[in-house]
Design brief:
This protein is of the alpha/beta class and about 210 residues long. About 35% of the residues lie in helices and about 20% in strands. It binds S-adenosylmethionine (SAM).
Length: about 210
């Protein structure tokens, strides 16, 4: 998702107290309890887009701290606008490329990672850029607690098959794999729809999901 460049979005982000501005400083990893002012579990969404999923999750689970990560200012701006309408103390944002995740979170600092409708990067030579690739799984392996889990949803069957095939070589195991999330009433319990999930399921696309651990 790349919205048109919105004039002033960088300035809004730089001034927003919902965005952790100092995150890429070398002393950020290990300080998330201080940033939130409590020791609640930390859940992050990588590539959150306009933030519907993470905003809803944060509202439903005030006992969890959430961080939404988005690469593009014009998209993050939408998530900030949502927070301006309904402020939540347990949700913060980061504008960054997920490649830098290990510069922001310390070893074992994160309890859960969400990837929702990640960009497919269909060309083979771009496989390393896919957020569920083994290269990214190795980064998540460092920041995620040993007993932590990662959840991934997509309607892109090719990307999902790739993601499933990456698990074994990367040393991860699947707790849940479904190729039709919306057809499974047990798995749908507590499911929060993302913007893309709403759009693609309305078109009749089945939604794939896995929950993985090491
Ligand atoms: N998660 C949302 C949803 O399900 O509605 C948005 C999905 S959209 C297809 C993917 C989003 O991930 C885009 O907003 C894109 O800018 C962001 N993104 C892609 N690669 C990223 C990266 N390496 N780091 C941070 N964000 C990224």
């Amino acid at each position: 998702m790349r919205l048109r460049n919105i004039t002033g979005s960088r300035e809004v982000i730089a001034a927003s107290h919902y965005v952790v501005q100092e995150a890429l400083q070398p002393d950020c990893p290990g300080t998330w309890k201080e940033i939130f002012g409590n020791d609640h579990p930390l859940h992050i969404e990588i590539g959150m887009g306009k933030g519907k999923f993470i905003h809803t999750m944060a509202k439903m689970h005030p006992e969890v701290n959430y961080v939404g990560i988005e690469k593009y200012s014009s998209v993050l701006l939408r998530a900030i606008q949502k927070m301006e309408q309904e402020e939540l103390g347990n949700l913060k944002f980061l504008r960054m490329d997920a490649e830098d995740i290990n510069k922001v979170f310390g070893p074992g600092e994160v309890d859960r990672i969400y990837l929702n409708f990640s960009d497919p990067w269909p060309k083979d030579r771009h496989a390393k850029r896919r957020l569920p690739s083994r290269e990214f799984l190795a980064r998540y392996d460092v920041v995620l607690k040993q007993e932590g889990k990662l959840e991934f949803k997509t309607d892109n069957r090719q990307l999902f098959d790739f993601a499933v095939a990456e698990l074994e070589p990367a040393g991860w195991k699947a707790e849940i794999i479904t190729y039709d999330l919306h057809g499974d009433s047990d798995l749908m319990e507590g499911n929060v729809m993302t913007e893309y999930e709403e759009k693609f399921s309305a078109l009749g696309n089945p939604i794939c999901k896995y929950v993985i651990y090491r």
